[in-house]
């Protein structure tokens, strides 16, 4: 049963572009910071939230997400809460190049990791990603009842949550995720129930092949 009536919006913001000259799938590895372009994306995203009723700001523990949250915190005078549930998905290919034809997928010893795309066998199960992301979104909803919250996370967790909310299959082509750099996927709650999903790209569209493993 809902503890409050009215509308609450939880915005899921993907972090900006990361400095990754080696083009590896960096996943949860430390030390991967925003590029200069990524810092600009974070600033643009912060401006997008200026006229909104944001009262709660949360970030993944990873550095690139906290960097993306920082301009919002400064613009809105809000503290940043860290929520481990917003972290990037675990992946067995972390630290490797995964481009078709020039990366780990060429090596037979890695093919076993691809045996089950439905789970997926190469990383954190989709059902677990969706469960933790939904829990984080619901906690933010409760903290911002009647207002808006911003959660800074990563592409696959955000997209998996959207697939879950919309009742779609988890298995998908990564190139077709609607979750560009510094994009905003917004969940609208009426009380405790999700009644709408919307999407915006404050920093503009992203080439789906531009940034691996983000």
UniProtKB/TrEMBL annotation:
It comes from the Bacteria. Transmembrane segments: none annotated. InterPro entries: His_Pase_superF_clade-1, His_PPase_superfam, PGM_Phosphatase. Pfam families: His_Phos_1. This is Histidine phosphatase family protein. It comes from Blastococcus jejuensis.
